[in-house]
Write a structure and sequence with these properties.
The chain is an alpha/beta fold and 236 residues long. It has one domain (9-226): 3-Layer(aba) Sandwich (Rossmann fold). The chain is built from eight helices and nine strands. The protein has helices at 20-30, 43-50, 93-105, 121-124, 132-140, 161-164, 177-187, 191-199, and strands spanning 9-13, 34-38, 56-58, 81-84, 114-118, 146-152, 168-171, 206-210, 215-219. Strand 8 and strand 9 (215-219) form a beta hairpin. The chain is globular, with a radius of gyration of 17 Å.
């Protein structure tokens, strides 16, 4: 089991309804320290509510530092779970998301370890428009014990570093060949092999590429969540 205080980046992609959120949930649920969710579509907030996860919603103007005053020592050992649901119609939406990532870099959890779940990562780290907070997280987050869960349907539209810096790249069924190429060429997997594996995936199956071994394998669907289920060992 790896030391969860240490930084770990996971990139998860695939078409809508393929299983990305359920995979991300297990990584999120297994994380024992402070957490933040960037919930662009507001879907994750509903998930947290349905699964009885105590959380606080951040609103603009955002705090200048990690909001220690929200911490309740009687809730999950003092772990703080924050959610930011941006107004994507606002002119400041991208900057607000970027500032939230900056807050995670300065998080105040045990050992300063923090997890940021960026749902719809293309809105937080769009190609050629990535903000300073996200750039620092991708380049130097490992020095701040920041872990990232990055989910999105269109890999070609995001900052390449989201894939290039990932310790684990999880890919569900991906119909657009340019999206498959964005992943394949970045992780260095033979493109024909990657395309064949992806096209052969059944519902909720996925490939996992691991940086440590530089190998890719097809995996069965993650177990369906139910109350009281412990995360599978690979997420711990």
């Amino acid at each position: 089991m790896r030391d969860q205080r240490k930084s770990y980046f996971t990139f998860i992609s695939g078409i809508k309804g393929s299983g990305k959120t359920e995979y991300a949930w297990y990584g999120f649920d297994a994380y024992p320290f402070d957490r933040m969710v960037l919930d662009v579509t507001h879907d994750v907030t509903d998930l947290l509510t349905d699964r009885d996860v105590p959380h606080h919603q951040l609103t603009v103007p955002l705090p200048a530092s990690w909001p220690e005053w929200l911490r309740d020592p009687d809730v999950e050992g003092g772990r703080l779970t924050l959610v930011f649901r941006p107004d994507m119609g606002a002119s400041t939406a991208l900057d607000d998301l970027d500032r939230c990532v900056g807050l995670c870099l300065r998080g105040g959890g045990p050992g300063r370890a923090t997890l940021c779940w960026a749902d719809e990562i293309g809105e937080t780290a769009p190609v050629h428009r990535t903000g300073p907070g996200v750039r620092r997280a991708l380049h130097h987050g490992r020095h701040d014990d920041l872990s990232l869960l990055m989910c999105g349907p269109r890999p070609k539209d995001i900052d390449t570093l989201c894939i290039a810096q990932a310790d684990k790249v999880v890919t569900y069924r991906t119909l657009n060949r340019y999206d498959r190429e964005a992943i394949g060429r970045t992780i260095g997997v033979d493109q024909d092999e990657f395309d064949r594996a992806n096209k052969s995936l059944r519902q909720y199956e996925h490939t996992v590429w691991d940086r440590e071994t530089e190998e890719m394998h097809v995996h069965e669907p993650v177990p369906r969540w139910r109350r009281g289920r412990r995360p599978p060992i690979e997420f711990l």
